[in-house]
C-alpha cells in the first residue's frame, strides 16, 4: 500500500483509498486528464487492465462486482471517454452490480481551454447511478471513496461515478484514508417470520420463486436447505438461475418466457408464492389479482407495490438469516399437493429434451444448448450476450451453482457478453468459461479479443452466425411485418480471430460442435468458434407448440 505518512498528491491518496477497499483491478482507457491517477496506479498494488474501449472496461468491472460482491472499478477520461461508460453504468444500475467509475475532467480552478470536451458528466450519469459526484478538494477523497463503496455495495447494489479533475488530482493533501468495515443486515422480527410460516402451513400448493436478488450475498446454502427441508417446489427467473441446483426433483423450470410456457400453468395453479429475491427490473412471471394467489415477499428491502404486485406479507432483512429462521420455524416436510407440479415437470423435461440431438445444419438452438451443457462442468461458466438464444439457454440449460450462467435480463444490452466472460475467466482460471454471443452483439465489442489474448486468458467465444439481428427479425415476422432492414454481412471470423492472435474455428457439420468445444478448451488460450445457426425453431417451439400443448395436463 502507498506510504501516505507525508503530504502526497491527491491521486496517490485516491489510489491508497482504493487499496484500503481491497481493489485488485482498475479497468480502463486513460486519457491525458487521468495521467496523475495513472502514475499513482503504476506504483500501487492494483493491476491496471487496459481495454480497447471504455464499454469493455465498464462491463468487466460490473461483472467483477457481480461475481465477487465487491465493487469493480473502471476509469475513463472526460467527454467521449466518460460517455462511453454510460451503457455499463446502466447495465450495473439495472442489473444490481456494484460498480465504481472514475472519470477525468479539465481543471476546475483555472482553465484556458474553454468548453473543449467538457460536458456535465456528473449530471449526465445521475439518472443511472446511485451516487454521482465531482471531487473538488483532495482532502475529501477518503470520505468520498468510503461513501462510494458503501453506496455501490449496499442493497440494492449499483453504480457510482466520481469525477476527478486534473488539477485536483495533482494537488497536495495530508488527509488520511478511512478504513472500511463490514456491513451486516438485520434479521426480520419474529412476528413477521411466524406470520409467513403460518401462511405456508395453510397453503395447499405453494411455490418458491428464486429471483435475481437471491443470486447475491451467498444465500444459496440457506435457500437450498429450506427447499429440501420443507419440500416446496421452486422455479426461477433468468437472473435467479443456479442459486438452487436445477437438477433437483423439486425444480419446475425457468421463467424464460413471459407467459405461455408449461411453468406458467404451475404458477396459475399455485395458491401461494414465496418470492425470494424479487427484482422489479425482471419481467414478472406472474401478476397478482384481487382475491388471487397470495405472495410472501422475502428480500433485503420492502416490496415496491403497484397494481400487479402487492404481497400479503413481507419478510425484510438479510436473506440468508430470513430463510434460515423461516425453515427452523416450519421444521420438516409439510403436507402439500405436489401431483400437478410433478406432471408439469415431466412435460417440461420432455419438451426441453426434444431436439437435443437433432443433426440438422445450420445448428438449431436445442442442439446448441445441449452440446454446450455436455462440455461444461457443474462449476464452469457461460456468459451470454443478448439475443433470442438467451431464452433458449435460460429455459433449456441446467445451472447447478450460482453465477455459472451470466446473463443480463435487466438492461439486456448487446455487447456485454464477451467482456463479462473475460472477467469470469480472469477470476476463475481453473474453470472453463465460454462467451456465447450473436454475431450482432459480438461485433459491438469484438475488439476486446485483443485484450483477452494480451491477458493470457483461457476462453472460448462462440459466435452464433445468422448474419442478422435475429431476435428483432423474429419479432418482426411474429407481428406480420415484411422481412426487411435487419440483415448484414460478417467478416471471416476465423481470420478475424487470427488477426488478434486468437484461434478461429468454423463449424461446418453439427456433429463437429461438441468436439470443437472440447478441443478448444483442451488447447487453452483464446478461441473463437463460428457457428451457423437456424432460428426457424423459435416460432414453432416457443410460440406455436407451447400454445397448443400447455395447460392441457
List keywords for this structure.
alpha/beta; 22 helices; six-stranded parallel β-sheet; 20 strands; 553 residues
Task: Provide a short characterization of the protein structure.
By secondary structure, the protein is an alpha/beta fold. The chain is 39% helix and 17% strand.
In whole angstroms, the N-to-C terminal distance is 64 Å
What can be said about the biggest beta sheet? 6 strands, parallel
Helix content: 25-40%
Total number of helices: 22
Give the spatial strand order of the biggest sheet.
Answer: 3-2-4-5-7-6
Contiguous low-pLDDT stretches (5 residues minimum) are none
Structural class: alpha/beta
Strand content: 15-25%
Q: Based on CA inertia axes, which overall geometry fits?
A: globular
Spatial extent as radius of gyration: 25 Å
Oligomeric description of these chains: single chain
Chain-averaged pLDDT: 93
Count of strand segments: 20
